[in-house]
Design goal:
The chain has a domain at 26-115. The chain is 59% helix and 3% strand. The chain has helices at residues 25-37, 39-46, 50-80, 83-92, 98-116, and strands at residues 127-128, 135-136. It has a two-stranded antiparallel ribbon with strand order 1-2. The radius of gyration is 22 Å and the shape is elongated.
Length: 138
């Protein structure tokens, strides 16, 4: 069965037609609310040269990837410290191709650790500094 094409499908490869991006009304509402609440920051982003804005987006993606890698390495380290859990994960994932196992192990372990060790409501004893609205680690 073929999937129905979206209303704003991209132009066919090789054609000179401009690319049409899908619009999500909920996302647009969130963006519009943020712009209204943060006009100075929006002005800063709006006035960025194109190349600088693109580099900023790429930097955000790099930082997101680095955070994920750091979290995954911590999860793998926890598994390495628990041989029983490690054996259980290896048994569970033995049919996956080798190149997919580490990612799958980290993903499943992340969910298991969240279920078995829920975070405290206040996190690491964070407090708010008076008047700034910024959190300060204790």
């Amino acid at each position: 069965m073929d999937k129905p094409k979206s209303k704003s499908a991209a132009a066919a490869p090789g054609s000179n037609a401009p690319v049409q991006y899908r619009e999500n009304p909920r996302t647009n509402e969130k963006i519009d609310a943020w712009i209204k609440a943060n006009p100075d920051q929006f002005k800063f982003f709006d006035e960025l040269p194109h190349e600088r804005a693109v580099r900023k987006l790429v930097l955000n993606e790099v930082q997101k990837y680095e955070r994920m890698q750091k979290m995954n390495s911590g999860i793998v380290q926890k598994l390495d410290n628990d041989p029983e859990a490690k054996q259980a994960f290896e048994t569970l994932l033995k049919r996956l191709p080798e190149d997919q196992r580490e990612r799958a192990t980290a993903s499943i372990a992340r969910h298991v650790f969240r279920l078995t060790n829920p975070r405290e409501e206040n996190g690491k004893a964070q407090t708010q500094s008076a008047g700034t609205g910024r959190r300060m680690g204790a």
